[in-house]
Amino acid sequence: MHVVKRVEELIPAGVQEAFDRLQARRWDVARRDAKERLARLEKLQQLILARREALADAIHQDFRKPRAEVEATEVMPVLQELAYIRKHLKAWMKPRKVTTPLMLAGTSSHVRYEPRGVVLVMAPWNYPFNLLVSPLVAAVAAGNTVLCKPSEKTPNTARFLAELIRDAFPDDEVALVEGGPEVGDALLRLPFDHIFFTGGPRVGRRVMEAAAKHLTSVTLELGGKSPVIVDATADVTTTAERVVWGKFLNAGQTCIAPDHVWVHASKEEALLAAMREALERFYGRSEEARRASLDFCRLVDDAAFKRVRGLMDRAVTEGARVVVGGGVDAETRYIAPTVLADVTPESPIMEEEIFGPVLPVLRYESLDEVVGHVRAEGKPLALYVFSQDEATVERVLRETSAGGTCINTVVLHNANPHLPFGGVGQSGLGAYHGETGFRTFSHERAVLRQGRTSLAHLFFPPYTGKAQKLARLASRLFE
Ligand SMILES: NC(=O)c1ccc[n+]([C@@H]2O[C@H](COP(=O)([O-])OP(=O)(O)OC[C@H]3O[C@@H](n4cnc5c(N)ncnc54)[C@H](O)[C@@H]3O)[C@@H](O)[C@H]2O)c1
Predict the structure, then answer these.
(1) Where exactly are the structural domains of the chain?
(2) Which ranges carry the Aldehyde dehydrogenase domain (predicted)?
(3) 353 lines ligand 1 (CB under 6 A)
(4) What are phi and psi of 114, to 5 degrees?
């Protein structure tokens, strides 16, 4: 017999209790001024600084991420975010006065930034520290209580995070629950005030469906295929090294990694040769040297290894040429940094986000053609354009849509806290970083105060015709 469980039975006791504690404390936490909020974040920062070696060990154990990459892509962005918040939080929290239209003479208005309440931060595994702690600090800065869930695919980092959060915050202000999809599913049944989710579009859709039940607002930081366009005027050497760096960082397991490259036919062979050169300079001149390189990560699990290997093998079977790479080692989940040429839009590797160290290069003849392809692929999280021609750059910006764009480089827009970071359409909804993060975790409350004099009584019933005449007169102001 099929047994339908009640909602309460689907939520593990520990999870429900953690939520209830955060719920009970939310109004006290919401009242805090900037100084008190910053004191909490200060403690977190001290613990991060004291434990950065342990963090590097944990992430290394999870997928052999090099220490230098842990510093540059996990620790530094979080410290930068904390420093930026420290500098600006007081100003961000200030109510913002707005002007008063003539019709409302006698009133004054302002916008207050109030915390959303109890928020859920669900993180992916690929930058397991940064992508949990960055939204967390924005949420705390905005005065929320927070429940976090790291990914089960990076268990060492999840354990590190659990201890860090436990030591940095009282458990009725910030809590962390570990677990996989079942725990994620249970969390999504709770009536949070906001859900901040980073992960794939499949689970993102599930988050939005679950949020609809409680009319919970969501921020979705998703993924997709981020293209690179290299036109005929681009500098081939610098283009190659920047694209190769951004692609093979984290072994291609980066949401804003260049997924594939569209290169103008006149530059194709030169670009491929320069990419090969850059890749060998970065990771080693031979396949053995690259396999032994300490600067190159592994795929996170067997499923990821099988999926990326399958994509690469099918592309080659269907006619792609291996320019460099192509090797694999299932035991260590190693896929060589690989560049593929002669790939076409119909190739299976163009069907889904690659999320691994394989870079297909496609050639194009006209900008119209490549713009058409990019539009057909949906709105990506990032789109990169390499060109010395301002008109080309402007056309690409005007005729396509993407979460973010870098011109003549890749990935770095993510590192500027003055820029909002987020997707559009299938690549996400909402944004964070810096002030945008504070606003994301705040509700903009509209406040209007009536002074002594008021024109409103002119519109009170009974309507003698005077009110209508006045409204008509007033509407002339807008003609
Ligand atoms: N936009 C961004 O900032 C950004 C950053 C990093 C990664 N990503 C994207 O994330 C994806 C890779 O990360 P991933 O594999 O960890 O993503 P994922 O969607 O599989 O998992 C993300 C989180 O959701 C949880 N989860 C999984 N299944 C669930 C379910 N059925 N119900 C509830 N929760 C569930 C996981 O445990 C994890 O905590 C890629 O698509 C990548 O592009 C986006």
Answers:
(1) 7-222+431-443, 227-419
(2) 4-446
(3) yes
(4) -110, 150
Nearest CA to ligand 1 atom 36: 151
CB 160 within 8 A of CB 58: yes
The per-residue pLDDT for range 291-322, each reduced to its tens digit, is 999 999 999 999 999 999 999 999 999 999 99
ipTM confidence: 0.97
Torsion, CA 234, CA 286, CA 295, CA 422, rounded to 10: 40
Q: Which fold is adopted by the domain 227-419?
A: Aldehyde Dehydrogenase; Chain A, domain 2 (3.40.309)
Is the shortest distance between the CB of 149 and ligand 1 below 6 Å?
yes
Neighbours of 398 (CB within 10 A): 9
CA–CA dist 326, 308 (Å, integer): 11
At residue 103 the predicted structure's pLDDT band, cuts being 50, 70 and 90, is confident
Give the max Cα distance, the chain: 90
* CATH annotation of 7-222+431-443: 3.40.605.10
Q: Is the pLDDT of residue 11 over 70?
A: yes
User: Long-range contact list for 187-190, CB < 8 A, 24+ apart?
Assistant: 187/15, 187/120, 187/122, 187/147, 187/149, 188/120, 189/7, 189/10, 189/11, 189/213, 190/11, 190/15, 190/16, 190/19, 190/120
> Going by CA atoms, what residue is nearest to atom 28 of ligand 1?
181
